[in-house]
């Protein structure tokens, strides 16, 4: 029978093959078979066992992979994997030691860390990196080589002669040249780079609409490519016109250092096909097209990226899109992904597309929702609201002008009579037929422009707008300011366009509809004309210009539709906030002097409504699965409850294996979860509800039922759909238990706050006893142990030797005390955390010096010995500089190696040059060549300065 670990290895082998690796057993090794070879069960030094997989690139070992069964906590074997990278059984001359690349995988979950990073940290990856990727990372220039290309002084962080990594290069970005950037953009770039230096995988930038997010992003991208060596960056949008807009911004951006255009230095490709150029540095794509490419689809319909996939998400539960490995676009293809207008794109169906990539994710939006903060780990690196933008002159402020009509707020009644005729319009064809009503027809405000079109309501609003425009809205203006009207749907937009033209007495050019259903002209061309030409003066849209689209001359945003989402309203309102040069404004609006503000014309009361964040796909996330099942058991048919129930049933079905499905079928009488979930989704469909209402009430196909009839039909459909659950308590209980066995809640919405942090009284007492024992030992044995004689009688006299400290270490570690530097450090930290620096788990033998000095109250702070040596070294270097004594870069490198040796061994001798790391760079002979006759004097001087 196959064991869980064997199953895991089968999955791992398959994934490795997908990623371009050849997996071999030890008895069939052929390193020439492929650039990337994985060898199973590789022996370790000194008979210490075997590494599950050893990774070879171009014939050289570069890393290790540890396999574990599914469900195993992978981070618990990080230390074990690190040992593999330092314990090769053969002298194979690896390009870097210890081997830099480490993986732990169950075949379902894989983590990776890179020892070339300044602080290696494991992270989840979708799948293993390709051989050519690891080969590229191994070939990377060292930090000194990298920095010298752009740093006039050659200064850099660290002294590493290994290949540099993206994360190490991020530590060495030069100061920002502001160029054309506004102060808010400068702050955003600096904060983002600080987040990247701290290796935060996700960051969120919240900047008011019109405050320069795209230019800020381009400035940051330029620095990431030039100074951090980012190989490829993705600029992700959710519809094509925003991609075109971003492409123009890249083309117009001039770099602050040499004033060259970005596109002259780096290739920027907006995807219009399924091929990415090999020299492309910046890829601009819609998420729809990117997903198509990941699936390997040869063709993609451009019409699918003209409309945002987020603006019209159906309210019914849906499953997130599946993502599979792509050899053409592997997870490491992009180093950084910039997600434009991320408020709507990252926490619903498309999340898996983003999490496929092993890249930094940077979101930009003016209006983040709770889920946006959650996705980006609450890492808000920049917050710049509308009020600040107005104060800085980056945005213009707005005024609200309210138009209220009776029909808008109350609806109306059409009285039946001999002279009364009612038009009935087909929703699809817009053909109208006229009928005489048999009885009075009453409709409410919520039915306007959907079930009922009241032409005079639209006309009254437009006529009032026309008349008040030159007197109250923009007094003294003859030319109609550029106006954007938001309609409820495409049919409503048609009605508005018709009446606007009539009431203003203008032709077709004066007012245009710009929606996804516009034919005869590309929407992008209509937007361009609205932005740059005199006509149209008024544009009517539904969602297309609601977010992201930059049309600076707009001075009026008019709402003839209601909006329930705060995020959507702020985005729509944001179409008017952008500043514009007065000459550019006069070019399209001849009697305008300057854009000092814009006006929201509110015709539906949207500015007086309490707006909520956009709902996630699941409408009742805070309601437990058990409560949802109880709701249907008690006869409840609340659509939000049942929608959430269907969503969770669909997820549960995907988690079930054959065993669980058999149990469920036995209890349910043969019905499976998927069919129940599907029945609920069908019952929630408004079209299904309307059709049933027509059937139940004997209405013809061209007649719409009243809301009461639809509600009754919906209630019946939903009760029938949930009947298998409502009437079967045994099934409900089984589903609850099954779900519990699979799931673990991950809360990304709640933001935590620290209440208290500190050690328990028991821990403090235990630490006190340990410290007391140590200090008593020092007092008792001060005349017996050589090292203690030094501390008591010669605190700053003769130097301590390594052997003295080693003897003291053995004495305090002997029974019954069993004291170690780690335990003592932790105890002192527990008793006085603000006086203790450094983690207790990282203590070295030399740290006994610091512990004894602190215990004897010769030092006020407990500081790692290596840190003290570092401080003394820096002071000594500064003193040499002041004395006019300068060292070459090579000499400084040797001095730093001597410093690090002293920090561990307490002294430096000429013979130590035959030890690691000196012997690896030439040993004593090279040191004598570098320092000449000064070498012996310099060693004595450093010993005197650095050693306690």
Summarize the model shown.
This protein is an alpha/beta fold and 948 residues long. Helix content is 41%, strand content 13%. The protein has a seven-stranded mixed β-sheet, with helices on both faces.
The amount of beta strand, in percent, is 5-15%
Our Rg estimate from Cα atoms comes to 35 Å
The number of helices is 36
User: Total strand count, please?
Assistant: 24
Helix content: 40-55%
Q: Can you tell me the residue ranges where pLDDT is under 50 for at least 5 consecutive residues?
A: 311-317, 612-617, 746-752
Side by side, the strands of the main sheet go 1-2-3-4-5-6-7
What structural class results from the helix and strand content? alpha/beta
The overall pLDDT average reads 84
Largest sheet: 7 strands, mixed
N-to-C span: 62 Å
Q: What global shape is seen?
A: globular
